[in-house]
C-alpha cells in the first residue's frame, strides 16, 4: 500500500510528535506557513445597545460574545460595557472588577462606592475610575442610580489573567466630579482650534497615567462634543471604540457605511478599523463619551489613525 502524496504544504494536516517521551512532549502540535493562517475570526459587529428599561435593576452586559465567538462576556474583543442600575438607598450591589481598570459614568441618581478603595460619593454626570479588585460595593442614594461602565475584562479573560492587588495596580481610584468636568469643558470652549484638530474633546487621565495621556495602560477615555449642524471628519483607527450617547438629539454615526441613529443613553460599538464619522443635524450641542482600547494600540504601535476626509470638506459641510 502506498502513502498518499501531499503536493501542497497547505494540505498537510496538523502534525503531532512521532514518539513523545513525556506528557509535555505529547502536547506538541505543528502547523506550517501554508496551513497555519486559515483561521477566520468573525468581524466585530457595529451594534447599538439600549439602556435597561425603567424598573429593571442589576447589571446588564452589552454582550456580543456569541457574535464574536468568544467564551466570555465581551462588547468588543478586549472590552466589556455594562449598565448598572441600583435601587434606592440601602441597596448594596456587591461587585468584583475582573479588569485592570474600569471607567464609570453616572447617568442618573447618585450613591457611594465602598469596599476595595477609600469610599467616595458620586452624583449624576460624574466619571470615576476603579482599579480591578474584588469586594466593591455600590450603594445608591434616595433616587437610586443608573451607571454605565466599561472595563477590559475580556482582555484578562482571554488569558485567564487576574488583576493585580490594589496596592500593586497600575492605577488608583480617580474621581472626576461633574462640576470639574464642566469647568474643563468651559476652558476648552474658550480657546480656538486648529483646522486639523478633530473637534473639541476632553481627554481623561490621572497623575500616574499623565505621561501616556491614558486612563489605564489599556484604555483611553474621551468626552467628545459636536456643535449643531457639524460632523466629526470620517476617520479610522485600529482601536475598537465603545460610545455612550450623553446628549445627542438629531445625531447619528456612520460606521462602515451604515447609518446608526443615536438614542438616549445608547451604547454604540465601532469595530476596529471601521471607517466612521459622527454627525449632529440637531439644534443643540452633542456630547458622547468614548472608551477605546487605545492604550494597548499606542503601546503596540498599531493605532493606525487615519483621516478619510479632507479638512475642506468638513468646513463646507
Ligand atoms: Fe474614532
Automatic annotation (TrEMBL):
<dbReference type="InterPro" id="IPR047183">
    <property type="entry name" value="GDO-like"/>
</dbReference>
<dbReference type="InterPro" id="IPR013096">
    <property type="entry name" value="Cupin_2"/>
</dbReference>
<dbReference type="GO" id="GO:0051213">
    <property type="term" value="F:dioxygenase activity"/>
</dbReference>
<keyword id="KW-0560">Oxidoreductase</keyword>
<dbReference type="Pfam" id="PF07883">
    <property type="entry name" value="Cupin_2"/>
</dbReference>
<protein>
    <submittedName>
        <fullName>Gentisate 1,2-dioxygenase</fullName>
    </submittedName>
</protein>
<dbReference type="InterPro" id="IPR011051">
    <property type="entry name" value="RmlC_Cupin_sf"/>
</dbReference>
<keyword id="KW-0223">Dioxygenase</keyword>
<dbReference type="InterPro" id="IPR014710">
    <property type="entry name" value="RmlC-like_jellyroll"/>
</dbReference>
<feature type="domain" description="Cupin type-2">
    <location>
        <begin position="225"/>
        <end position="291"/>
    </location>
</feature>
Amino acid at each position: 500500500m502506498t502513502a498518499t502524496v501531499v503536493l501542497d504544504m497547505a494540505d498537510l494536516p496538523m502534525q503531532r510528535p512521532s514518539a513523545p517521551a513525556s506528557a509535555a512532549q505529547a502536547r506538541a502540535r505543528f502547523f506550517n506557513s501554508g496551513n497555519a493562517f486559515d483561521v477566520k475570526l468573525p468581524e466585530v459587529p457595529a451594534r447599538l445597545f439600549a439602556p435597561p428599561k425603567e424598573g429593571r435593576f442589576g447589571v446588564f452586559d452589552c454582550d456580543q460574545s456569541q457574535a464574536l465567538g468568544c467564551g466570555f462576556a465581551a462588547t468588543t474583543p478586549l472590552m466589556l460595557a455594562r449598565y448598572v442600575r441600583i435601587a434606592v438607598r440601602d441597596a448594596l450591589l456587591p461587585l468584583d472588577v475582573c479588569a485592570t481598570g474600569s471607567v464609570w459614568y453616572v447617568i442618573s441618581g447618585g450613591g457611594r462606592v465602598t469596599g476595595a478603595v477609600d469610599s467616595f460619593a458620586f452624583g449624576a454626570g460624574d466619571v470615576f475610575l476603579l482599579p480591578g479588585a474584588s469586594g466593591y460595593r455600590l450603594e445608591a442614594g434616595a433616587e437610586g442610580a443608573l451607571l454605565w461602565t466599561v472595563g477590559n475584562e475580556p482582555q484578562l479573560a482571554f488569558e485567564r489573567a487576574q488583576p493585580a492587588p490594589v496596592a500593586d495596580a497600575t492605577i488608583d481610584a480617580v474621581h472626576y466630579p461633574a462640576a470639574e468636568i464642566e469647568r474643563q469643558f468651559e476652558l476648552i470652549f474658550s480657546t480656538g482650534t486648529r483646522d486639523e484638530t478633530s473637534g473639541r474633546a476632553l481627554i481623561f487621565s490621572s497623575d500616574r497615567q499623565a505621561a501616556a495621556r491614558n486612563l489605564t495602560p489599556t484604555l483611553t477615555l474621551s468626552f467628545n462634543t459636536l456643535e449643531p449642524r457639524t460632523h466629526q471628519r470620517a476617520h479610522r483607527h485600529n482601536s475598537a471604540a465603545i460610545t455612550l450617547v450623553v446628549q445627542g438629539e438629531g445625531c447619528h454615526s456612520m460606521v462602515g457605511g451604515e447609518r446608526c441613529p443615536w438614542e438616549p443613553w445608547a451604547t454604540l460599538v465601532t469595530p476596529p478599523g471601521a471607517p466612521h464619522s459622527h454627525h449632529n443635524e440637531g439644534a443643540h450641542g452633542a456630547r458622547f463619551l468614548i472608551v477605546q482600547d487605545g492604550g494597548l494600540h499606542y503601546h503596540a504601535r498599531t493605532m493606525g489613525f487615519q483621516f478619510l476626509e479632507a479638512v475642506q470638506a468638513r468646513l463646507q459641510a
